[in-house]
Amino acid sequence: MASLTIRKLDDAVKTYLRLRSAKNRRSVEEEVRVILRELIEGREEPLTPFSAPPAVSTAPTPQRTGALPEASVTLIIGGGIAAYKSLDLIRRLKERRVEVRCVLTKAAQQFVTPLAVSALSHERVYTDLFDPQSEFDAGHIRLARDCDLIVVAPATADLLAKMANGHADDLASAILLATNRKVLLAPAMNPLMWSNAATRRNVAQLQRDGVVLIGPNSGEMAEAGEAGIGRMSEAIEIAKAAERLLRPPVPKPLAGKRMLITAGPTHEPIDPVRYIANRSSGKQGFAIAAAAQAAGAEVILVSGPVDLDDPAGVTVKHVESARQMLEQVQAALPADIAIFAAAVADWRVANEGEQKLKKTAAGMPPLQLVENPDILATISKLTDKRPPLVIGFAAETEHLIDNAKSKLARKGCDWIVANDVSPATGVMGGDRNTVHLLSRKNGGKDGEIAVDSWPVMTKEQVAIELVAHVARSVTGKSRETAS
Ligand code: C5P
To answer: At what angle do helices 157-164 and 171-178 cross, to 10 degrees?
Structure first.
């Protein structure tokens, strides 16, 4: 089989892979595997050519479906009476969306049968180092590396000794020697074997090698009348430990921060049944709300009429008009960060009809427009409750950067996210966005504005990047535009 060196790929592909693997919280190597699998199954995401490398986000990925990302484990079952608990472990891992491929040592087959293990894991079971069926492409190497984690349960005294000393004379020990994945061991043995100086040395060596141990617990042994430390941890404990290694807790850089976000269009009534609106879908603002919530912020989202589900864990205030939006924004203060992503109507109808306007012989009814309050400018210019970081959006169809620069000055906000919304870009209502982040250099003291242009991304990726910039800024870690 050919091997692939990620380092040797061209920059655009490397950038795409880094961003996608950060988003999905997988290693780059695993991401390549997923892409290839999706390609074969004909459901790959389109590859986007990136023009400039984005900062790799540390912000967590919003889960669109709420489902956990898939992971895979190679489970090595050693020969001990505790092997029966491994059958339950397979089930516990599978309920956590973990694929399990099992390896049985020769001794393990005295306690559980390959048939039972295969029935529970829905996979073939591996027992021999020299198995003609799997060795044509070095099966033990695949079992060692084609997974996210190796779990050994029960890890017998003999398996610990082999592993600590680098033996590779059967399939289990060959996998453990050939792996570059994390290894979780669940030891199980008689208390005297556990406390024996040889086992102590082996365990200490394995811990130095970076292997993670769970248990053993203390309790009664299978041998009549014996008790002490040596019982294998329960299947649920091992499954939880595996999950912590597979899906480490997501960092919450915005914990304790309150973030206010506006999104969507506004509807400005003409009469009780008609209104003026625009084409904003609200997708970008909703994605920012979800990303901020995932980063630990308390999020209040004030949204105009949209066809989107409320993001989980976010307080959503639904409004129709610009004036209602301003009211809800003011009611939500104070906040640490405010992001105004709504496409607020600039004007409303001054002479709104109390009844449905009728066609008359006098011709079209004269609609008089008056300017709506500018929510972004109003909040940016507050003296008492102004959020320390105020971010506006500039959706332009021409002279994007120049217009965005003057908007930053005119509105008095700290950052502007500028995007081209001319029809050819498909940004309005679409799923992708190309943005430029404008911020005042040195906090605006010298009047200079920094422009950071991001590659084309999905609106979710833009949201994750923006939230990562916000997190760096509010936690004082300055980088690039985070002033
Ligand atoms: O002036 P313009 O509509 O282009 O400004 C865009 C930015 O100002 C966006 O952040 C938008 O949410 C905000 N805005 C606002 N209230 C308005 C108009 C725009 O908050 N009435």
So the answer is: 40
Residues in the chain: 483
Q: Is 433 a catalytic residue?
A: no
Contacts 24+ apart (CB under 8 A), 403-410: 404/436, 404/438, 405/438, 405/449, 408/438, 408/440, 408/449, 410/377
Same domain, 240 and 272: no
Q: Which string of b and e fits 438-477 if b means at least 16 CB within 10 Å? A: bbbeeeeeeeebeebebbbbbbbbbbbbbbbbbbbbbeee
Substitution candidate for ligand 1 out of 344, 416, 466 with most atoms within 8 A of CB: 344
| Helix, strand or coil, per DSSP, at residue 148 | coil
Name the more confident of 22 and 217. Answer: 217
Instruction: Look at residues 246, 267, 292 and tell me which one is the last residue of a structural domain.
Output: 246
Lowest mean pLDDT among 24-38, 141-155, 239-253, 332-346: 24-38
CATH number at residue 140: 3.40.50.1950
The answer to whether residue 66 sits within a structural domain is no
Residue of 324, 325, 376 best suited for mutating to test ligand 1, as the one with most atoms within 8 Å of CB: 376
Task: Tell me the pLDDT tens digit for each residue of 34-76.
Answer: 787 777 665 544 433 232 323 333 333 333 333 455 899 999 9
